[in-house]
């Protein structure tokens, strides 16, 4: 797994199959300075195209346990809207910010450094994840859109940033929240889109009396 989220097995821990509740549980408890563990320059799945070369990239383990540390936001802080354009609430403690297309990692680092400077004066203690994306409305429209776009379009060691980030004894952490740059990158495969002509050509196979009826 490129992103592995681990929680203690407690009486109130949601099932991992309830992904939205599980994320909420993790984000309420994570210590951003302690609980993120990166594996860099390692092997990744061939089908994952977010790394810098075939079968090469990074992974992160996010482990959370213990008492609830924060109450997550259920909307966008008005102060945040004054400082940041195109910010959208996705789910409890998760926001999406739409930015210009990704050009390079050097440029992205500069862009996100400016974003962090804008965020620092604002109380972000109720936010767990900020996702930088190409289309914030798409990300927020459906939970599966968030999961797909955020975690397939990012390489943990290159695309995770954070407010108040620092290294201590080779361990990366931040004050929080974390920022994930999930914009499409030049080395990503093209976006898979439905072909309307192809759909029209096969549609009759699914009609009553045809071989694929009921599918």
How would you characterize this protein structure?
It is built from seven helices and ten strands. The chain is of the alpha/beta class and 215 residues long. It has one domain (3-181). It has a five-stranded mixed sheet, with helices on both faces. Strands 1-3-2 form a three-stranded mixed sheet. The longest helix has 15 residues, at 105-119. It is globular, with a radius of gyration of 19 Å. This is 3-octaprenyl-4-hydroxybenzoate carboxy-lyase. Keywords: Lyase. It comes from Pseudopedobacter saltans. InterPro entries: UbiD, UbiD-like_C.
- The number of helical segments is 7
Going by helix content, strand content and strand pairing, the class is: alpha/beta
- Give the SSE string: EHEEHEEHEHHHEEEEH
Low-confidence residue ranges? none
Mean pLDDT: 92
In whole angstroms, the N-to-C terminal distance is 31 Å
Query: How many strand elements?
Result: 10
- Principal-axes geometry comes out as globular
Strand order within the widest sheet? 4-5-6-10-7
Kindly state the percentage of residues in helix.
25-40%
Rg, Å, rounded:
19 Å
The biggest sheet amounts to: 5 strands, mixed
**Total of domains:** 1
Could you tell me the strand content as a percent range? Answer: 15-25%
């Amino acid at each position: 797994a490129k992103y592995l989220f681990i929680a203690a097995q407690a009486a109130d821990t949601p099932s991992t199959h309830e992904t939205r509740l599980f994320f909420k549980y993790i984000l309420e408890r994570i210590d951003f300075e302690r609980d993120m563990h990166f594996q860099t320059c390692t092997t990744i799945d061939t089908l994952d195209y977010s790394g810098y070369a075939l079968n090469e990239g990074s992974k992160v383990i996010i482990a959370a346990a213990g008492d609830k540390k924060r109450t997550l936001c259920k909307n966008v802080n008005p102060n945040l809207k004054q400082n940041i354009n195109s910010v959208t609430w996705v789910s409890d403690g998760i926001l999406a910010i739409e930015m210009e297309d990704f050009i390079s990692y050097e440029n992205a680092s500069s862009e996100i450094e400016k974003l962090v400077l804008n965020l620092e004066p604002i109380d972000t203690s109720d936010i767990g994840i900020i996702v930088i994306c190409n289309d914030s409305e798409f990300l927020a429209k459906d939970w599966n859109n968030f999961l797909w776009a955020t975690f397939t379009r990012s390489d943990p060691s290159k695309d995770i940033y954070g407010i108040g980030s620092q290294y201590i004894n080779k361990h990366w952490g931040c004050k929080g929240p974390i920022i994930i740059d999930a914009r499409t990158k030049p080395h990503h495969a093209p976006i898979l889109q439905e072909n309307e002509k192809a759909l029209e050509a096969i549609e009759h196979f699914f009609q009553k009396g045809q071989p694929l009826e009921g599918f």
